[in-house]
Predict the 3D structure of the following.
Amino acid sequence: MGFDLGSLLSQFAGAATATVTNTNTSDHFEQAAQNAPTDLLSQGLAAMFHSEHTPPFGQMTAQLFGQANPNQQAGMLNQLLTSMGPTVLASLLGGAGGSALSGVLGQLTQGSTAPASITPEQASQLTPEQVQQIANHAEKHSPGIIDKMSSFYADHPGLIKTLGSAALTIALAKMAERHQS
């Protein structure tokens, strides 16, 4: 007998808030992530990032960055930075003033207005707080960045489990809603 994604997700149907108290939420999320189509998982993650019941997108991105390995960190940064056009990236660099963020991003982008592909070694130079600044800027100026990052995280669901059961419940509830329709 195969895995029944619909049965698993039905436990979370209608749980738009973190009111579901389930000690196995992390395990359920892992099972759903392994068996759900990537686009369904991505939609659930986007709902989680947009939810008023979770921390802001930039804060969650910073937390995920702090839990990621250097390859994942580089992938996250490349997604964030490539979502910003040259003007937006320049405003990020200019807005950072003399901060460490400006110095690191200036080095990473090698003085150009379009970011070079960031290596894992370069990504590991940034702190989660600096990544939060980048994510906040991207969210403000790059429509669709949450959807883009949700697709990235759908390929790395193990990271999402570090956000806790409230966030996972929201993602699973949205997945249940989409799966039923």
